[in-house]
């Protein structure tokens, strides 16, 4: 399943959050959504997941208009990982992951139990959380919790996975762990759209980056094409050190630039 | 999880068995000794003995109402807690029951209930719908425990005051005593006519509430994630508000406010269903039926005449429980 | 603590003394002259209304209670309607400057206490439970009002109606009173006296019902009374009446004769008792007739 968004405009209380944004992603690629705070990344992600109806523009799933796609079908096609990552009750890890199979069950249970079981254990294996299957989610650390919630999203076995800042609040070890997991998911055939703040992670793991600022797409393409020193300075308002290690690019933000010296600094 | 999966049918069987035992006890306990088997045989044989009469006309409707109203309260509490993701949500605490009682009071004392007995539950349902709608309108903008409790305090105080006002305006020499009935609930001297007017809306309400089971599971990951799992929030909200209003509204219209059942029961049973909100529903209904029947047996055994209001017993059990929960969440929210 | 209490007591006494000094002068002098028939009589009690309106001259009365004007509760509502109503409040009573206030022994206690304190002449009516007590009370009030002849006539009317066999035997038809909220009437009450005078055995007097005299429907079903006296005047909806409409009452064993008797007929010790008695005698006769036909 391919997602395509055309001319998406979203306004909130008179402020334009997204301004005629176009976007497309499909299976087999890891797309990073980057940009300063307030650029509209999370809003775009929720429009792509049909969580928010845009004020103008259209979203297409496999060329079918979003309104014409059945909710259950969409839930099977598209998995969504929110930023908050809250779990309201002290459920066991396995129960949390199993919630990813809800799009396949009907009102009163009847679903393919064997297929669900298989998907749940595949997701847990992929996220390497099998050892805590029976533990309560409340007893886990932040990194373990993120992996559990990621496994929950993987258990949907959707064509597309949309993840909103899954590496936020994680230490470097767990950040790498999550990014490697997303990369593996892409190798297994799914498509991933991920909102990231860490430009090095974005540069290193993503196949393609979309740079948003003030509700508009300002650059799109391979990481090395999008993340230039000048553009980072212009959009983020910082100077940066760009380099490569083991053939892969990295970006280190270095110093805030004086206000007004760039066209669009971070707010 | 596997262990929970196996024990779930057992849990339901156990709770169902408990409710049945208490139902039978409720039939056996009354204000005069009754040879239950003989009375049962007479009733089934169509012999109009005193035993059969007492069993069929007095104890059966009372026990049935205990079962139905208790199931309603336990189920509604579990659904509201799951939906609002707040362990303090309960029809009594948040004021839905109080509102329903007010609706029933207005219909009853204005004389409307005399024109058609079906108007009584309708009054309760409409008022419960209004309170529920109001509450969820507030909850839609995110509801902390504090907000929920404060909203409940406000609605309950207003409903209590308006019940007193309505009763005092009504030319009724028994007002003081009847305010107690509406605010504290009772199953005393209820008849099959009360069962018949309330049973249909209660069961329709249960169906709506039980249909939210999947959605409540999904909601344990928050509303956004639930929606991406294919849950239609508008439909779920309508089912919750409608189901609570129908079942609690009808129940309260015939028994008055019976508080705290919906608070205590889901909380006690949650560990036994591995905290799964969906699985809690039926278990909570059965548990609510058991607690209500047990409390109603207690009011008949406690040597106080006229008998205590049922809500007095459930409040004595439930209010300290509420306090301990508030205490715990006060610490968590800091 | 102690000092302040003494101080407040002293101030309180002084204030009360001042108050009494102002208000008691004329009233006290009137109280001295006991034999003169009062000319401004106020009733503060429904039962007092009923006797007063029948015994006194119309221009002797200045006010009756609002209850006495309510035809649902009073047997003298039409007569009572001619007078301004009071609600048993001290201010209302004082403003009328009565020379006799007739009150009930158990009602509006705070007002009665206040009126006594300020020296108003208050006559309290007891709650009689036997026929001689009823008669004595009527005579007492008649004498006080200077209307002894009317009182004697009323006593004669009541006594005449109550002539008959004193206590019903064990074979007598049985009756039980069922009142709102499931209350019944036991021994040692005026109602019990009337039931017995009608030749009925009051089953409520034989049951051990505790202090509250509440009869559960289960107990009622077991009593198997010949006559079920539904003692309610259902003027407005109340839960209290629901128990009187419980379906079990239509299916009681032996299908008792149901007599609806308005409480206003026998709440007060007055001539309305005669009507209550007549209703119950009629019921007793119906039962006896059925019994004879059955034999």
Provide key terms for this protein:
heterotrimer, A: 267 residues, 4-stranded antiparallel sheet, 9 helices, disordered C terminus, B: mainly alpha, disordered N terminus
What does this structure look like?
The complex is a heterotrimer of chains A (267), B (334) and C (295). By secondary structure, chain A is of the alpha/beta class. Chain A contains 9 helices and 12 strands. Chain A has a 6-stranded mixed sheet, sandwiched between helices. Chain A is globular, with a radius of gyration of 19 Å. In chain A, 45% of the residues are buried. Chain B has 334 residues and is mostly helical. The longest helix of chain B is centred in the N-terminal third of the chain and has 35 residues, at 50-84. The radius of gyration of chain B is 20 Å and the shape is globular. With 295 residues, chain C is an alpha/beta fold. Helix content of chain C is 45%, strand content 12%. Chain C is built from 11 helices and 9 strands. A 5-stranded parallel sheet of chain C has the order 3-2-1-4-5, sandwiched between helices. Chain C has a 4-stranded parallel sheet with strand order 7-6-8-9. Mean pLDDT of chain C is 85; it is low at 1-33.
Secondary structural class of chain C: alpha/beta
Radius of gyration of chain A: 19 Å
Q: Characterize the main sheet of chain A.
A: 6 strands, mixed
Q: Count of helical segments of chain A?
A: 9
Largest interface, counted by CB within 8 Å of the partner chain's CB: A-B, 38 and 24 residues
Would you list the SSEs of chain C in sequence order as H and E?
HEHEHEHEHEHHEHEHHEEH
Tell me the series of helices and strands of chain A, N- to C-terminal: EEEHEEHEHHHEHEHEEHHEE
Poorly predicted regions of chain A: 263-267
Numbering strands along the chain, what is their spatial order in the largest sheet of chain A? 6-7-8-3-9-10
- Helical fraction of chain A equals 25-40%
Short description:
The complex is a heterotrimer of chains A (267), B (334) and C (295). Chain A has helices spanning 41-48, 71-77, 93-98, 113-126, 142-155, 172-187, 199-205, 223-226, 229-236; strands at residues 3-12, 15-25, 30-34, 56-61, 64-65, 78-81, 160-164, 191-195, 208-213, 216-221, 238-245, 248-256.
């Amino acid at each position: 399943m391919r997602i395509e968004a055309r001319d998406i405009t979203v306004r909130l209380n008179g402020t334009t959050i997204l301004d005629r944004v176009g976007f497309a992603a499909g299976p087999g690629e890891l797309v990073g959504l980057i940009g300063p705070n307030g650029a509209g990344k999370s809003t775009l992600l929720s429009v792509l997941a049909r969580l928010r109806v845009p004020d103008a523009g259209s979203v297409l799933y496999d060329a079918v208009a979003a309104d014409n796609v059945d909710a259950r079908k969409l839930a099977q096609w598209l998995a969504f990982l929110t930023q908050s990552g809250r779990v309201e009750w002290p459920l066991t890890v396995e129960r949390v992951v199993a919630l990813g199979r809800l799009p396949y069950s009907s009102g009163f249970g009847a679903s393919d139990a064997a297929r669900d079981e298989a998907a749940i254990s595949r997701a847990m294996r992929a996220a390497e959380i099998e050892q805590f299957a029976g533990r309560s989610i409340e007893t886990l650390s932040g990194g373990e919790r993120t992996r559990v919630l990621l496994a929950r999203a993987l258990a949907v076995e959707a064509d597309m996975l949309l993840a909103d800042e899954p590496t936020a609040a994680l230490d470097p070890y767990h950040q790498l762990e999550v990014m490697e997991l997303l990369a593996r998911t892409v190798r297994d055939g799914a498509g991933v759209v991920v909102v990231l703040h860490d430009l090095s992670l974005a540069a290193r793991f993503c196949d393609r980056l979309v740079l948003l600022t003030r509700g508009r797409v300002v650059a799109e393409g391979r990481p090395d094409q999008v993340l230039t020193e000048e553009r980072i300075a212009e959009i983020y308002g910082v100077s940066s050190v760009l380099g490569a290690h083991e053939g892969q690019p990295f970006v280190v933000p270095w110093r805030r630039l004086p206000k007004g010296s760039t066209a669009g600094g971070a707010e | 999880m596997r262990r929970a999966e196996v024990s779930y049918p057992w849990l339901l069987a156990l709770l169902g068995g408990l409710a049945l035992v208490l139902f039978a006890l409720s039939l056996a306990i009354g204000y005069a000794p009754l040879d239950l088997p003989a009375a049962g045989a007479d009733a089934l044989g169509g012999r109009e003995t005193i035993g059969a009469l007492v069993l069929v006309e007095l104890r059966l409707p009372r026990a049935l109402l205990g079962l139905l109203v208790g199931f309603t309260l336990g189920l509604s509490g579990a659904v509201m807690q799951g939906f609002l993701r707040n362990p303090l949500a309960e029809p009594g605490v948040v004021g839905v029951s109080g509102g329903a009682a007010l609706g029933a009071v207005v219909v009853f004392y204005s004389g409307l209930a005399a024109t058609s007995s079906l108007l009584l539950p309708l009054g309760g349902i409409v008022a419960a719908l209004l309170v529920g709608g109001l509450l969820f309108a507030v909850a839609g903008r995110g509801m902390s425990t504090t907000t929920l409790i404060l909203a409940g305090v406000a609605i309950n105080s207003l409903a209590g005051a308006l019940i007193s006002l309505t009763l005092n305006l009504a030319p009724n020499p028994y007002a003081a005593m009847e305010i107690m009935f509406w605010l504290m609930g009772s199953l005393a001297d209820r008849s099959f006519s009360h069962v018949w007017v309330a049973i249909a809306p209660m069961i329709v309400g249960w169906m709506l509430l039980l249909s939210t089971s999947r959605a409540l599971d999904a909601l344990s990951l928050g509303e956004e994630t639930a929606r991406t799992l294919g849950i239609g929030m508008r439909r779920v909200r309508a089912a919750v508000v409608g189901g609570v209003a129908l079942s609690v509204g009808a129940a309260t219209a015939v028994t008055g406010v019976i508080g705290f059942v919906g608070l205590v029961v889901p909380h006690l049973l949650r560990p036994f269903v591995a905290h799964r909100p969906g699985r809690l529903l039926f278990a909570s209904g059965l548990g609510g039926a058991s607690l209500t029947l047990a409390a109603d047996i207690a009011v008949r055994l406690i040597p106080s005449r006229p008998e205590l209001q049922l809500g007095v017993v459930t409040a004595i059990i439930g209010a300290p429980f509420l306090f301990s929960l508030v205490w715990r969440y006060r610490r968590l929210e800091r | 603590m102690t000092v302040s209490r003494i101080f407040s007591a002293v101030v309180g006494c002084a204030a009360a003394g001042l108050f009494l000094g102002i208000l008691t002068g004329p009233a006290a002098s009137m109280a001295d002259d006991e034999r003169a028939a009062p000319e401004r009589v106020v009733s503060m009690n429904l039962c007092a209304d009923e006797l007063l309106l029948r015994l006194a001259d119309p221009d002797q009365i200045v006010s009756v209670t609002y209850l006495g004007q309510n035809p649902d509760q009073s047997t003298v509502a039409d007569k009572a309607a001619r007078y301004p109503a009071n609600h048993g409040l001290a201010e209302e009573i004082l403003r009328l400057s009565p020379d006799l206030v007739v009150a009930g022994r158990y009602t509006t206690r705070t007002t009665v206490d206040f009126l006594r304190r300020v020296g108003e002449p208050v006559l309290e009516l007891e709650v009689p439970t036997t026929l001689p007590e009823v008669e004595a009370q009527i005579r007492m009030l008649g004498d006080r009002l200077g209307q002894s002849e009317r009182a004697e006539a009323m006593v004669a009317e009541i006594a005449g109606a109550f002539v008959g066999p004193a206590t019903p035997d064990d074979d007598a038809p049985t009756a039980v009173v069922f009142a709102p909220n499931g209350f019944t009437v036991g021994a040692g009450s005026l109602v019990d006296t009337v039931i017995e005078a009608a030749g009925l055995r009051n089953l409520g007097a034989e049951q051990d019902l505790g202090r509250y005299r509440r009869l559960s429907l289960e107990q009622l079903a077991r009593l198997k009374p010949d006559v079920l006296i539904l003692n309610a005047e259902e003027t407005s909806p109340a839960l209290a009446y629901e128990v009187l409409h419980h379906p079990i009452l239509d299916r009681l064993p032996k299908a008792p004769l149901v007599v609806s008797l308005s409480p206003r007929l026998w709440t007060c010790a007055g001539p309305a008792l005669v009507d209550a008695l007549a209703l119950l005698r009629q019921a007793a006769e119906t039962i006896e007739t059925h019994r004879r036909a059955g034999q």
